[in-house]
Amino acid sequence: MNDKIKNNLQLTCWGGVGAVTGANFLLEDGETRILVDCGLLQGVAGADMENAQKFPYDPKTVDFLFLTHAHMDHIGKVPKLVRDGFSGAIFSTPETLELSKLMFDDALNIARKNAEQNAQNQNNSPAPLYDEADVAKTMSLWQTISYHTEKKFNDNFSVFVLDAGHILGSAMYQFSHLQNGDPNPDKRVSTKIVFTGDSGNSPAPLLKDTDKIEGSDYLLMDSVYGDRNHEPKDERDAKFRQIIAETIAVGGAVVMPAFSLERTQVILYELNNLIEENKIPSVPVFLDSPLGEKVTEIYKRETKDFNAGVQSEIKGGDDIFNFPKLRITHGHLDSQKIVETPNPKIIIAGSGMSSGGRVVGHEKTFLPDPKSTLLLMGYQAIGTLGRQLQDKPKQIEIDGVNVPVRARIEMISGYSSHKDSDHLVQMVSDTAKTVKKVFVTMGEPSSSTFLAQKLHDELGVDAIYPERGKIYELE
Prior knowledge:
This protein is α/β, with parallel strands linked by helices.
């Protein structure tokens, strides 16, 4: 696949199949090559080695790259793509551009620290995927396109941007492709294909609902929760409140692993409401995530993307991400001193799957405490420490140390920013009359195949779990 394939519209899934992460999809005709997302494979054995491999296509031959949102499993390999020769245009929403800058800077910091540690330990780990110069060149190629905007970028392709409702700035892209054959553009057949990225768990605490997908011929969709449903909103909210209140009552600490992007902001918003409404006691709350703090500042500026209820609260004077006794830590020493604050307290720290970050240190400290609670707030990928903890082991190894697990471990999936099984089916139902084929991706194989069968059984649509590297003809 080093040369452009001269044929009708074709789709190849180079990532996002066989795993939730690593989204990377190639859409092409004889003249134009478009990538949708270029993300890191995460949370599986051998991910670092896989991420370091050459791309299965020549980056120099790619014309456009569209990024659905700023999570690293969708953007994490973009600077590597540029380093390896891509020089086309990169498109995303303005919010995704701003958030991606933070995510890349954070990734560079982590890469530098890992390189230093590997040098000290004489480990033969893969070299960093990219450096500051690669990120700078990446940003120079970046252009923005806002929600509900259509852009024509050559005679054959145009794109329309929909709100995915997943995280701030998350987009779904509807590409329209005019089939070759008739010199009169008005008489050429248009094919529409939508890439959902990650579709949001609407209605969400902060964001607007996912836009409807209508009139699509083809659909490539996510399926993290393709085989299961979240708790209902009322049950979710009651469980969150109850777990925190009970842990505070016995004098424990609530430790919440949280992704810096979206999950942290949702947790702050929910805690703000509970404290304002006196539904939980006011106790020290630590936001132990430098990246989470920076992301929150962007959320504060982009309130236009919030749903009507949240916008009304802000207009009424509510500082939705701030409340009494909220403490933001910065350096590692500040993080380590959190233990000195007497319980009860609440600690929000990255990463969301306990696969690194400051939360791991808090888990080592508080997992042995029977009064404390580890509250998992969403999907935990196979192979991560979070997934192991979700199974409630009696002890667990963290950084080479066996840690007894006496703390209470709870899981709430309803705060996930991903649609669950029933709502994924509902999303497809809006375009079921026109869709010719649905490609079910970005889920564990069992989840993706379950959803594909469910779409076939309930909607009668042709839904498949695509093969990595297989070329699918769309016309």
